[in-house]
């Protein structure tokens, strides 16, 4: 995948005109077409679409006399000699909201917009007198700046020449009408085999597993889909066509059982249009993942009030605008009160869906309605699936390994040894040959076949949170769950993105650099990383490091506690400094301050199972901390706070347990690993920051 971004003059939705058109093209009113009828050929403009798109009424010009003929849609094709339909005709409103006019934008200056009304008359309107929505539209149309990303307002779509729809309007297109979706009765999935992860050897037979789709030509784009009312939610768009030109999303209302509904929309990226193709009343759901090859999508139903529990389902037919709900299943059959959050959701090639709920990873074969395998999941760790779906990585926190499993069979082919881990984010490289792990403020990249550590990065900022996905962008970049972009080439954070909500967990194409966005009734896709972040990865900046191997560090130790005397702490610290390639010198400008202090005394309450009432105990924690400082700048820090256990078992009293736990965590000092270089404070969060939203990428 090429990380570069190609900007065009204007945008609508996604996609590249270089892609092959679908065998059957749906037409809309205003399209100029050529056709054959009764052995003769002709050319005209579509004036009506009938029979669910089967017939076209075409207006033709016979020597100056207009006439209409009805032809089969299959006998018509878009006219290559004529321009596309004029999609720029829109409703313009003044700032007061009292006046409006339907017109086409002719041109604009810094202060004036020239509009052509439906009757052909041209008017000049001061931009300041237009509504905010119209002024934003004009900003999108402005191409005076050669940089299409300037100001973060343009949304260029590679190869697209269609203007976005006016706010609140749904472009008209027929796909056979709006289907009324019925929800089939939930099936009970047979139990699959439970995986036992025991193979600790590296998977030497690991083969490349790349994505079967090429979406490298997709650019940034946004489209108004429909008007969203209060208490309605628009879901993020998902690609449901193998060439990337067809997407789907949902508008749903889940406020009350009485008012629940879902509207399904199909988005045509070539035309920059969207059309409602289905509706479901009484149930609300959203698309959670889709397979572009089949157009199959995983949907998640919202839990209803009463006895109806939340569940999952498979929707088919989205690619051609004829969706249906093929099957549903309950997450917890027989228990309507038990609900859980589906933390991982992905539709895979071959008719598989992988989901995580109930602390269990499940691979579902939705074609034969069975569970292929399950695997217990601990902590917040989610699985990672290779780009082609062949391999699944599972974090085993008890065995200090990342197990590599053949997805379709559940056969473990080996493991990547990673040491004791807690909550990690994981992600395969695009060819599945490498896997990245992010935990806390650390990132490690392993070669899967050998288990060799290829890269380690430790930052002074959090890089991971509660598991989640760790997507690669090509072979050169990682997008870390908290927003930083890590350049693998330089082992350096080069940029930081701020994104709405928890976008990565909703984006099943995020590993290809495609991040879906949604706002009100608008949806879009933004390609990451953007040009400035890519350029920053090659930026020549001298003296990035505040401390590098060979430099000297002074050691200062204050405080002590049970099992951690001042001399012990100093010896551990000095050993860690030398191991990282530094030297110890008392007069060095860089100082490592190690401290042991007592926290504030707190009171914890415990309840004995089977009995009423609680028992309180007082506990004063120890705080163990390491800081690397230069002057007033804290460049690097580590700390740990002792605590009482959540559960207490055995014959000891709470006071005895409290005294046993009132001691420093010596591992902070004894197992200290310093990075080989520590960046200057101004570079630790990258060379720039950007906000990512429906408006595109806005540099801050």
The helix tally amounts to: 6
How would you classify the quaternary structure?
single chain
- Largest sheet, described in full? 6 strands, mixed
Q: How many β-strand runs? A: 50
Note the beta-strand portion: 35-45%
Shape descriptor: globular
Radius of gyration: 30 Å
Structural class category: mainly beta
Report the average pLDDT across residues. Answer: 79
Estimate the helix proportion, in percent: under 10%
First-last Cα distance = 27 Å
Low-confidence stretches: 1-25, 80-87, 143-176
Summarize this structure as a short list of keywords or feature phrases.
single chain; 700 residues; mainly beta; six-stranded mixed beta sheet; 50 strands; 7% helix; 40% strand; disordered N terminus
Describe this structure in words.
This protein has 700 residues and is mainly beta. The protein has six helices and 50 strands. The strands form twelve sheets. Strands 10, 13, 14, 15, 16 and 17 form a six-stranded mixed sheet that branches. A six-stranded mixed sheet has the order 34-35-36-37-49-50. It has a five-stranded antiparallel sheet with strand order 4-3-2-1-5, with no helix packed on it. It is globular, with a radius of gyration of 30 Å. It starts with 31 loop residues before the first strand and ends with a strand. The relative contact order is 0.10.
